[in-house]
Amino acid sequence: MPKRLLVVESPGKVKKLSQILGADWIVRASCGHIRELSNDGDDSLGFTMDGNSVRCNYVPRDQRAKETIQQLKAAVRQVDEVVLATDPDREGETIAWHLKETLGLREPKRVVYTEITASAVKAAIAHPRKLDTNLIGAGLCRDCLDKLVGYKGSPLVWALNNGAKSVGRVQSATLHLICQREREIQVFVPQDYWSVWVDYQEGFRAFYKGTANTPTDTPEAETETHDDAVGNNPDKPESKRVLSEAEATRLVEEAKRHSHQIIHVEGKLVYRQPPPPFTTSTLQQAAGSKLKFAPDKTMQVAQKLYEAGLITYMRTDSVMLSPDFCASARKWLEQNDPQNVPQQVAKHRSSKTAQEAHEAIRPTDVFRPSVQLRAELPEDEFNLYVMIWKRAVASQCRPAQLRKTLIITKSGNILWQARGQVVEFYGYAKYWPNLSKDAVLPLLQQGQALTLENAGHDQKQTQPPPRYSEPKLVQLMERKGIGRPSTYAPTVATLKKRNYVELKKDNLQPTALGLEVDEFLQKALPDLLEAEFTAKMEDALDAISEGKNSWQHYLTTWNQNYFVPALSKAKTVVVNPSTTAKTNNLVERKYETSKTRCPDCKNCLAKIPSSKVKKKYFLKCVSGCENIVLFWSDFHKTWEAPKTKTSPDENAPKPSTKVTSYPCPVCKKPLEEYSYIKDGQNKTMLRCSGQESWKDKKHKDVAYFHTAKGWWSPKFGNLDLGKPDSTNQGNRKKMVSPNG
């Protein structure tokens, strides 16, 4: 008979942990957050602030959470001891507190592990601790902050009447970064310039450096940074920029007129240190640039690897590795690559805000054969695992050794420069190849005369700053302190979901809607858009988690001193309807046009993307005609207007709604089927049959939609109580607030 209950977050861990712990344990999952702030009270915030105190009213997230709570309560009654093993971060500690409160646990044991292996789990259970009230306070504060900003700020953008849905504490600051870059691109004016070069018969090309009588240039700093957000595509070498074709031509003529001689040769051995192992941010960056994963996909795949016991916990900002793993990696190198074993164990420095109690992301067993894993894992999981393995091993290798060469030549009064590089020892780059290709220069001596083969110039043009790729945006968010490891991926996903940004050619571009929302918020809530302002809020949450501040005091003070006055001022900002109309037109013009013409105005119809139709788009008139929508008919091989079920006689009585036997989750009255047309398609939903239910705020979320698995509601889950709502499994948190 089991005597102990272990409660984890994800159901994906249950099987693995049950195998590790054996028959004496029951393992159950909370499926992420089981409670959320209610929608009661002023502005539906679900919490009240009185002086320096905050009172929160938490309710189950949805019907599925209610069922989970009942199942957990039943499990608690079967055992003598309950152990909470939610994830090892602020969010996990908060979920553990919610479980304690909901299940009525007096002094539950809290255990933390960063990998699901027998040794790690058993060691954690052998050393339980109490719940960390500081981490819980930071989690509750973040919860209240996000809902406060989302629920109070979002109505400001609703007034734009352009489809804008939300304002968010992290979301809006991130959108501002994307919009700022877009405006830089819009005002950018390209300039022509020329790169001047000479080719020598000795077998190399040199570029214009300057003139001998000008002050000596400051030596170029050779930065050896590891940028995970970009691929290995180094810029092609070019000369000091020449701003007119006439000057470029003059330099070429001078190069042809005078003899050439080497005046300086320099060669040095440079050591490039191995990169640190992955954090959440760098994992998302590398997976984006190398595997083309979106940040949210990276985290979903990593979650599966973690639950399978293959990698350590994937939400971390630390680059620290356990001594056991370092010893294991060293042993692997000694057996398989002895030349790459460093004299000392490599140490990497984490950021100031990193939680050093955590580890970097690494494989749990460096000796596990990849051949075996390739057969067991789906392709995406295997590729991400291999990338994590290579990065962790690379971090424990010797530095790479590069022979760098600099040659400066002179013709008349003009200086020319060539740079070369040869890798003499790959070191870590054998596993993490991020070195530029070799550029070999011939062996030459100072004072040696050279034979000019050719001279010329290439016209070029300055380029606007590039749009951010998803990896680059995550990197920028981390550098500016916007959000934390657990929020990078959800923030980028929310911006795309809200139609504030879209992915074009692997880069994030703000939509007309996103630009307008950002422009309005610059007038309404300018501080909320500034990275420094948002970063200070993150720092305040970190201080709360370290016990340096009271979360209730911080929240009430922030609201009273900043947010209330800021909202009052924001409400005085005038909404310009003409801008809204202009934006809507811009959005419509982006649709691809069809050869099929509108039957009324004869203009070409627009192709409206839709995943719900077989052809992946339908046709619609965007030239002013109302309700002109055509769908492809496979039967007739032509575009046709949708067939409606309505009677042609407008005076004919409307068909009565069909009442079902399902009870309304709010008032228990029967639900009724309601038919309607959306995007030219016939739809059916369930709603409460009560006559006044549409006026009642409590009923606003009573809406069930038909899916492949039956009737489903975003608020209440699956209608069939016998079937758990699998659509929500694996979600850490599902916010109902506009902040998303």
Strand order of the largest sheet: 14-11-12-13-10-9-15
- State mean pLDDT (0 to 100 scale): 86
Q: Uncertain runs with pLDDT below 50, 5 residues or more?
A: 580-589, 645-656, 721-740
Strand content: 15-25%
Kindly report how far apart the N and C termini lie: 43 Å
What is the total tally of β strands? 28
The Rg value, from CA coordinates, equals 31 Å
Q: Any idea what the shape is?
A: globular
The DSSP helix count reads 19
- Largest sheet at a glance? 7 strands, antiparallel
Helix- and strand-based class? alpha+beta
Percent of residues in helical segments?
A: 25-40%
InterPro entries: Topo_IA, Topo_IA_2, Topo_IA_AS, Topo_IA_cen, Topo_IA_cen_sub1, Topo_IA_cen_sub2, Topo_IA_cen_sub3, Topo_IA_core_domain
Organism: Anabaena sphaerica FACHB-251
Subunit structure: Monomer.
Protein name: DNA topoisomerase 1
